[in-house]
Amino acid sequence: MNRRERLMATVQGGPVDRPAVSFYEINGLDERPGNPDPFNIYSHPSWQPLLDLAREKTDRIVMRGVPFDNAPPDPLDSLTQSRTTVEAGCRRTVQTVTIGHRTLTARTRRDIDVNTVWTEEHLLKDVDDLAAYLSAPAQQFGGTPHVAHVLDAETALGDTGIVMIDTADPLCLAAQLFSMAEYTVIAMTEPRLFRQLLDRFASFLLSRTEAVAKALPGRLWRIYGPEYASPPYLPPRLFREYVCAYVTPMINSIKRYGGYARVHCHGRLHDILDDIAAMGADGLDPVEPPPQGDVELRYVRERYGRQMVLFGNLEVSDIETLPTNLFAEKVRRALDEGTRGAGRGFVLMPSACPYGREVQPLTLRNYETIIGCVERVWSG
């Protein structure tokens, strides 16, 4: 069984020769060590053995968004100005959106040795900002999916993996406009106004999902954003209102064309697992163990594993900090709990990946341990 066959059999609930293993964002295809951009962390030589390991040994799941050709312009673009500066190893971007007499400002920062973008000032800061944002014309759906990026990646992967289509849900697009503190207060105290914001994004996103699912049938998808409404941020009743009501139609569109919908939700799952299952999800990641999560993998497998493929159960913080003998115990436990009893499938996977410029020797050894544990158990 090759790696592509193993992944497709897993998401379809079929028999496999061994559990699939993914390094999540690290796939050995998208990282470009030769890119001279000074902000490219993968140019550091310490990354090369890990990229080689991912390319040669993992069941590669490569994420792709799908742009649209001939899409109508976003009305906010004409109201927006953006300025980026690079100084002292830091790339800063200031964005301003002028709506009527109100100017909204957002600021982000990217450090040269860290592969993430920090939001230092969020665009919306209070209810008045939200009302102004809602008064601007909304983006309208149109155009046709540009599928070449997906097809090119599938060709490059060959039989070593699959492409997973990646999309936000309406809650992700809404919540990231605010600081986490302001978002949770507004979502709790201004539900009517917040639903207007979700509806604004949902109309556009659902139409895009339907078009992409039709143009690229039968693929695995990842829907990210539901964790914004997971406990302790919001209560389960608002998870149903802000996530289920909007993600269920997206899942239905994906499945209508033979696709498979994987819901991405970090953190505490216990009180929302029934809701995730009720949406019709085919998969769930990253199923974090305590203390980051609040349920063991065995619990999720026993109660929901017949419906959903479970991805994950390894914490990236453990990969970077645990002595290898202790980390190996966690890998073996995840393999045991993720494959015990009846279930649709399991993919051993970290919750995220390192984002610093240098990969430490311990980190590399622990990634090698993930592969080694699987090969030792299933080699015969």
Topology:
Elements: H1 3-12, E1 20-21, H2 48-57, E2 60-64, E3 68-69, E4 80-87, E5 90-99, E6 102-111, E7 118-121, H3 127-135, E8 144-145, H4 148-157, E9 161-168, H5 170-175, H6 180-189, H7 191-215, E10 220-224, H8 236-256, E11 260-264, H9 273-278, E12 283-285, H10 297-304, E13 309-314, H11 316-321, H12 324-339, E14 346-350, H13 361-378
Parallel strand pairs: 1-14, 2-9, 9-10, 10-11, 11-12, 12-13, 13-14
Antiparallel strand pairs: 3-8, 4-5, 5-6, 6-7
Helix pairs in contact: 2-13, 7-8, 12-13
Number of domains: 2
**CATH class of the largest domain, please?**
Alpha Beta
CATH topology title of the largest domain: TIM Barrel
- Strand residues, percent: 15-25%
Name the CATH architecture of the largest domain: Alpha-Beta Barrel
Terminal Cα separation, in Å?
14 Å
- What does the overall shape look like? globular
Low-pLDDT ranges: none
Q: Which structural category fits the helices and strands?
A: alpha/beta
Structure description:
An 8-stranded parallel β-sheet has the order 1-14-13-12-11-10-9-2, with helices on both faces. The chain folds into 2 domains: 3-72 and 139-378, Alpha-Beta Barrel (TIM Barrel); 74-124. The chain has helices at 3-12, 48-57, 127-135, 148-157, 170-175, 180-189, 191-215, 236-256, 273-278, 297-304, 316-321, 324-339, 361-378; strands at residues 20-21, 60-64, 68-69, 80-87, 90-99, 102-111, 118-121, 144-145, 161-168, 220-224, 260-264, 283-285, 309-314, 346-350. The chain is built from 13 helices and 14 strands. The protein is an alpha/beta fold. Helix 2 (48-57) runs parallel beside helix 13, helix 7 (191-215) runs parallel beside helix 8 and helix 12 (324-339) packs across helix 13 (361-378). It is globular and about 65 Å long. A hairpin with a 2-residue loop joins strand 4 and strand 5 (90-99). The longest helix is centred in the middle third of the chain and has 25 residues, at 191-215. The model has no long low-confidence stretch (mean pLDDT 97).
